[in-house]
Amino acid sequence: MATIYQVSELAGVSLATVSRVMNNNVRVSEATRNKVLQAMEQLGYRPNSIAQSLASSRSNSIGILVSELHGPFYGEMLTGIEAEFRAAGKHVIIAAGHSERATEEDGIEFLLSRNCDALILHVEAVSDQYLIDLSKKQTPFVLLNRQITALADRCISLDNELGGYLATRYLLEQGHRHIAYIAGPMWKTDARDRFHGHQRALAGYQLTAEEALFFEGDFRETGGSKGLQALLASGRPFSAVVCANDEMASGALTAARELGYEVPADFSVMGFDNVNFAYYTYPKLSTIDYPVSAMGQMAARWVLQQVYQQSSIEVQQIFDPHLIPRDSVAEAAVT
Amino acid sequence: MATIYQVSELAGVSLATVSRVMNNNVRVSEATRNKVLQAMEQLGYRPNSIAQSLASSRSNSIGILVSELHGPFYGEMLTGIEAEFRAAGKHVIIAAGHSERATEEDGIEFLLSRNCDALILHVEAVSDQYLIDLSKKQTPFVLLNRQITALADRCISLDNELGGYLATRYLLEQGHRHIAYIAGPMWKTDARDRFHGHQRALAGYQLTAEEALFFEGDFRETGGSKGLQALLASGRPFSAVVCANDEMASGALTAARELGYEVPADFSVMGFDNVNFAYYTYPKLSTIDYPVSAMGQMAARWVLQQVYQQSSIEVQQIFDPHLIPRDSVAEAAVT
DNA sequence: TTGTACGCGTTATCAC
DNA sequence: GTGATAACGCGTACAA
């Protein structure tokens, strides 16, 4: 591989000048610039990004930590992030955290050891305090889908409470009064927020969440099917179930069918996230849209703005969910 | 950040010795090793991976190019890859190729410019010749899901022909004789191979694929629904449809329902890939399993073996698909 | 506008 | 076993 030195030799200029035309910072005369460009061309020169990093102490790499690489959710997120950075000539290093504290901390350590210029973290298990401590170190980071007051300016998140509210309000508007709830793991803040939105919507109708109609799931399909079975087994009547995400809703749909119920004739089902398979369930899932790709993109922009000084970029920190009515919710039968 | 120099100073040894204990290659006396270790600990020393890379001309990074980051397929693949490399202390740089020639070549260029030690490529649009040329350059690479004779030792792929064969043979065994086929884009080799398998299975029963019962789709849900409509519109009777992937099968399922047909009562539907949502369609999709995560992992192992000399690792290059019977296929009605 | 010289934090090749 | 010291390829004061 040709080096900057060989280019300078061929072009008959000094090595510093070559460097200058590459980072067209300082003014270089057109004549010499062309000489250099031509020499580069001729040698098929490509800068060694590692040497650049060492000299400039910028790796031009951004570390991304997500819970999982598979599943319908994180792929969307990564798409938004990668596209934005690639266009800016930065590259993305990924690691998976698997929603476990040790693995997440490990992943962060790993990315840090890789000299990332910044981190984009979608972490769930790590403590607030850990992140606050981390914020005192050199490497800047953004938090996706998490709210920490002390770190408010680095958080990009969905208004989950509003989403939960919208879901349940929609069912109430359709006349439902006995609404069951299959929650996510309640140690996760988004799961809690969604449930709080649910409660607020109920309160607006002078209702309150019944304990018998609550089930704590795991955000996975099995949680949804188990949840539905438990709710049915409770004997407590309900005409609608809201699930804290689409995967559980899908599980609930399957379980309902297997137990001989028909959705939405026997009861309605609401999801949350609007992952892409939500359109392909049967019946098509009514849900709450989570603009995850846009949020990933926004996290990337935050980095571009804060770390790479691209000041022209605007950053939005809170995103609003909205309702996607489809076929899994019907009006409540008049009683 | 502490440097190796400060460690050497505190430990009272030379900088070279510190380097030695880090890469515990050469023998260092227990006494000095402990002194160094202790000094590292005390300073919270962490090696600068970029400087290491520059000096050793190894970036310890592997570039991954996939078609898309979202969707049910690539996420699985990345999971297998990331886990394997992370355990080996390597890191993964990702780029998306979007199945377009220019973007794919661009992505490869991008990864190359990042000084990756190796590349794992899942490319579809780039020509064989381009890859053959690439193989003559320095950076080694593996090809996932692609067979090129000249590059046979770098290919890790599924026996797509066998998969296509298994799918159709299963339907034949269930008594179906009029079998429609919704193919992937025929410029993709895997799409062609799967179709060839289909033909071979038919030939085994003295049958041949009818042109009226063939539709070329796009591997996406819309392709499946359009395909089914076209097949139905052809007027040609059939009792089963095999789709070249699960997403098209899902589209076909939805279209069938919307047009008032019942699967598998009116006709059976076969998928291919066994992506995770295949279990959550209605009816549950009978399909062919594609061990994509295992294959991703294997690609990572290839790199570990070939590039990082971890000779103890075994590499398997061809993977066999197998049948997953579920609910979308039934026996053909006796005629 | 252009060139010189040093530094970035390691690894690796010599000697000792 | 251990210590100098020269790379690695580039950025960047500072000087010219």
Helix content of chain A: 40-55%
Percentage of β-strand residues of chain A = 5-15%
Number of domains of chain A: 3
- SS-based structural class of chain A? alpha/beta
What is the residue-averaged pLDDT of chain A? Answer: 93
Classify the oligomer. homodimer
- Main β-sheet description of chain A: 6 strands, parallel
Poorly predicted spans of chain A: none
InterPro entries (chains A, B): HTH_LacI, LacI/GalR-like_sensor, Lambda_DNA-bd_dom_sf, Peripla_BP_I
Keywords (chains A, B): DNA-binding, Transcription, Transcription regulation
GO molecular function (chains A, B): DNA-binding transcription factor activity; transcription cis-regulatory region binding
Organism (chains A, B): Arsukibacterium tuosuense
Detailed description of the structure:
- Two copies of one chain form a homodimer.
- Chain A is 43% helix and 14% strand.
- Chain A is an alpha/beta fold.
- Chain A has three domains: 4-47, lambda repressor-like DNA-binding domains (434 Repressor (Amino-terminal Domain)); 59-158 and 292-321, Response regulator (Rossmann fold), CATH 3.40.50; 160-289, Rossmann fold, CATH 3.40.50.
- In chain A, helix 1 (4-11) packs across helix 3, helix 5 runs parallel beside helix 12 and helix 10 (221-233) crosses helix 11.
- The model of chain A has no long low-confidence stretch (mean pLDDT 93).
- Chain A binds a DNA duplex (16 and 16 nucleotides) through residues 3-5, 13-20, 22-23, 26-29, 32, 47-48, 50-57.
